[in-house]
TrEMBL record:
Superkingdom assignment: Bacteria
Organism: Actinacidiphila yanglinensis
Signal sequence residues: none
Protein name: CubicO group peptidase, beta-lactamase class C family
Ranges in a coiled coil: none
The keyword Magnesium appears for this protein: no
GO MF annotation, one: hydrolase activity
Keyword Hydrolase: yes
PANTHER family: BETA-LACTAMASE-RELATED, BETA-LACTAMASE-RELATED DOMAIN-CONTAINING PROTEIN
Length: 350
């Protein structure tokens, strides 16, 4: 049994989640992968085909699509919201740039439960338009799902294409991520890992996006909503570890994975979290140029350019309840164990 399997099986025994899957590797080799647990507390054992709610790991996948639009010339990082969305012209978000939305320096507050008072897509989007800024754009990092919802609107307007189609064309298609997408169909829902016993919905959520604002938006949003199996997340991890050459020009990818918030508190790249000196979800086992992203449901992907290593971790830590923070220690232990794995020499090539 691998160290990672032991760690993740122990997390299940402690009640942190019912299910976990993982993959560690580089651009050409898988060093360790597997799964443990059950799809729900009383559900069937995992077999590796499961579909996971990625939650905020949706953000960097959408970010890759946005950067691909930059490569196509359909969008520029210094374009403003007002350049692409007429309804925002003259308002406090008109001059917010695509770069600021990607780096969470837009000043748009995040983690706002707008779904409670805005039960339709139109009313929720209007609430975002009217949501007052809590900082001047470009002055501090403030993690903002609402900012990413707005980014998705900008990207769709720039490309003249719905967000789900953009992600498929610019990310999932080129990487062969055939099982990844918004709004899983009936077959995918049958393989979905359970998330929360949701008080708002009055039931255990399975195969439907966990994030309530994303539910109101119809399941397609730039901040949350993607579902994926482990095999597809491995494809993403390998691509990132190799410089995402299937998706972006080298200079564009370098721009995306460079910190754009120095001196503003947290280190943020474009749609990625940089490696903070302390408090990083990946702990201190990865180098200073490492980047990644976590998802509220218990998912994450992290990459260390210094070693060329990626780590994918998928759990349902919100099942049956979002209460508890045991995933914090699990994530750090997993990344420490992943960093300690022997190099790819002799590893099974995939």
């Amino acid at each position: 049994m691998s160290t990672l399997r032991d760690l993740l099986a122990a997390g299940r025994e402690r009640g942190v989640y019912s299910a976990a899957a993982w993959s560690v590797g580089d651009a050409g080799a898988t060093l360790d992968r597997g799964w443990t647990g059950t799809r729900s507390r009383t559900g069937p054992a995992l077999d590796g085909s499961e579909v996971w709610d990625l939650a905020s790991v949706t953000k960097p996948v959408v970010g890759l699509a946005v950067m691909a639009l930059v490569d196509e010339g359909a969008l520029r990082l210094d374009d403003t919201v007002g350049d692409h969305l007429a309804a925002y012209r003259g308002g406090d978000k008109a001059e917010v740039t695509v770069r600021q939305l990607l780096a969470h320096t837009s000043g748009i507050p995040g983690q706002v439960p707008l779904y409670r008072d805005h039960p339709t897509r139109a009313s929720l989007l209007e609430a975002i338009r009217l949501l007052p800024l809590t900082a001047a754009p470009g002055t501090r990092v403030q993690y903002s799902s609402q900012g990413f919802i707005l980014l998705g609107l900008v990207a769709g307007a720039a490309a003249g294409q719905p967000l789900d189609a953009l992600v498929q064309r610019l990310v999932c298609g080129p990487l062969g991520m055939t099982g990844t997408g918004f709004r899983p169909d009936a077959a995918a829902r049958q393989r979905a890992v359970a998330t929360e016993d949701c008080p708002w919905r009055g039931r255990v959520v399975v195969g439907e996006v966990h994030d309530e604002n994303a539910v109101v938006l119809g399941g397609v949003a730039a901040h949350a909503g993607l579902f994926a199996p482990l095999t597809d997340m491995e494809r993403l991890g390998r691509s990132l570890a190799g410089g995402a050459r299937e998706l972006l020009r080298p200079g564009t990818f370098a721009e995306m994975t460079t910190v754009h918030s120095e001196g503003l508190g947290l280190r943020r790249c474009l749609a990625w979290q940089g490696q903070d000196p302390s408090g990083s979800p990946a702990g201190d086992s990865f180098g200073p140029r490492a980047y990644g992203h976590t998802g509220f449901t218990g998912t994450s992907v992290w990459v260390d350019p210094a070693t060329g290593r990626y780590v994918v971790l998928l759990t349902n830590r919100v099942h049956p309840s979002r209460a508890g923070d045991g995933i914090v220690a699990v994530r750090r232990d997993v990344h420490a164990a992943a960093a300690a794995l022997a190099p790819a020499d002799g590893a099974a090539r995939r």
